[in-house]
């Protein structure tokens, strides 16, 4: 990681003394106060690693660590689709489904500083068992890895292939896509009724090409809501796309420094 930053600095004709610090967005769970990683599922050899101390030791710079879904949402709220909205929920569709709540420019946290995990909200009975221990959660229906896994059993090699086949009228591929969009619509229903956010942002690689089909299903489901003032324009695509997490991670150095310092 240090070598990668050094390469970027060289390309940008900057030197290390010009940096104020390093912000890191990492797949979670992470402990942002201690700077440690606790993701035994996708980063098993990093379990318990104090990335903040390691990077600080190598660079002598302040370092801050956050969940990558939170850094993506921060980036969108500061410079993208969430600008001007007091409360934003963002769902990030990649290998899984990450999520974040941003209220007045700050990450909303709960028990032990944990962030929201809407990807593990139960949206359907049965279905594939998720690593979280739940069957039928949003991630097990709408995460990229789950869609790809369902597609491979039918001969489709990638998530993209599933969506392409569905667009071409393949009924089995359409069934997989329909399950993913319905699960997302049910999750959005719960999010809007529970939190009444000003905006729901859909981001991640999958949404760069498939936002419309997900947004249409969400809006179809939410049009029946009578207890919330739902409007179609409340569901929007991320505008920063993949760089959102990098931009949000950099912003950690100044967006809420007092919170980090008070927890150390």
What is the CATH homology-level superfamily of the largest domain? Answer: ATPase, nucleotide binding domain
Question: Radius of gyration, rounded?
Answer: 19 Å
Task: Give the percentage of residues in beta strands.
Answer: 5-15%
* Sheet with the most strands, sense and barrel status: 5 strands, mixed
Spatial strand sequence of the major β-sheet: 7-6-5-8-9
Structural class: alpha/beta
SSE succession: HEEEHEHEEEHHHHEHEHH
What global shape is seen? globular
CATH architecture of the largest domain: 2-Layer Sandwich
Q: Please work out how many helical segments DSSP would assign.
A: 10
The CATH topology assignment of the largest domain is: Nucleotidyltransferase, domain 5
Number of strands: 9
Provide a concise account of the structure shown.
With 264 residues, this protein is α/β, with parallel strands linked by helices. The chain has 10 helices and 9 strands. It folds into 2 domains: 2-69 and 244-263, ATPase, nucleotide binding domain (Nucleotidyltransferase, domain 5), CATH 3.30.420.40; 84-237, 2-Layer Sandwich (Nucleotidyltransferase, domain 5).
What report would you give on this structure?
This protein is globular. Helices cover 44% and strands 14% of the residues. The model is unreliable at 260-264 (pLDDT under 50). It starts with a helix and ends with a helix. The chain has helices spanning 2-12, 51-59, 68-79, 138-142, 144-152, 159-167, 171-195, 205-222, 244-255, 257-263, and strands at 22-26, 30-31, 36-37, 63-67, 87-93, 97-103, 106-107, 199-203, 235-237. The strands form three sheets. A five-stranded mixed β-sheet has the order 7-6-5-8-9, with helices on both faces. A two-stranded parallel ribbon has the order 1-4. The chain has 264 residues and is of the alpha/beta class. A hairpin with a 4-residue loop joins strand 2 (30-31) and strand 3.
């Amino acid at each position: 990681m240090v070598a990668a930053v050094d390469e970027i600095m060289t390309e940008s004709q900057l030197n290390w003394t010009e940096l104020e610090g390093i912000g890191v967005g990492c797949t979670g769970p992470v402990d942002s106060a201690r700077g440690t990683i606790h993701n035994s599922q996708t980063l098993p050899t990093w379990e318990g690693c104090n990335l903040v101390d390691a990077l600080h030791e190598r660079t002598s710079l302040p370092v801050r660590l956050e969940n990558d879904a939170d850094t993506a949402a921060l980036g969108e709220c500061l410079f993208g689709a969430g600008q001007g909205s007091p409360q934003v929920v963002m769902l990030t569709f990649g290998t899984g489904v990450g999520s974040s709540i941003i209220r007045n420019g700050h990450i909303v946290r709960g028990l032990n500083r944990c962030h929201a995990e809407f990807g593990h909200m139960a949206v359907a009975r049965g279905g594939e068992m998720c690593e979280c221990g739940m069957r039928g959660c949003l991630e097990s229906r709408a995460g990229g890895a789950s869609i790809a896994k369902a597609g491979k059993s039918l001969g489709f090699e990638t998530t993209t292939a599933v969506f392409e086949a569905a667009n071409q009228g393949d009924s089995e591929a359409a069934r997989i896509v329909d399950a993913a969009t319905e699960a997302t619509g049910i999750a959005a229903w719960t999010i809007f009724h529970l939190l009444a956010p000003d905006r729901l942002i859909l981001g991640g690689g999958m949404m760069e090409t498939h936002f419309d089909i997900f947004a249409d299903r969400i809006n179809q489901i939410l049009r029946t809501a009578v207890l919330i003032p739902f409007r179609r324009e409340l569901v929007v695509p991320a505008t920063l796309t993949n760089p959102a997490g990098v931009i949000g991670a950099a912003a950690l150095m100044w967006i809420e420094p007092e919170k980090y310092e008070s927890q150390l």
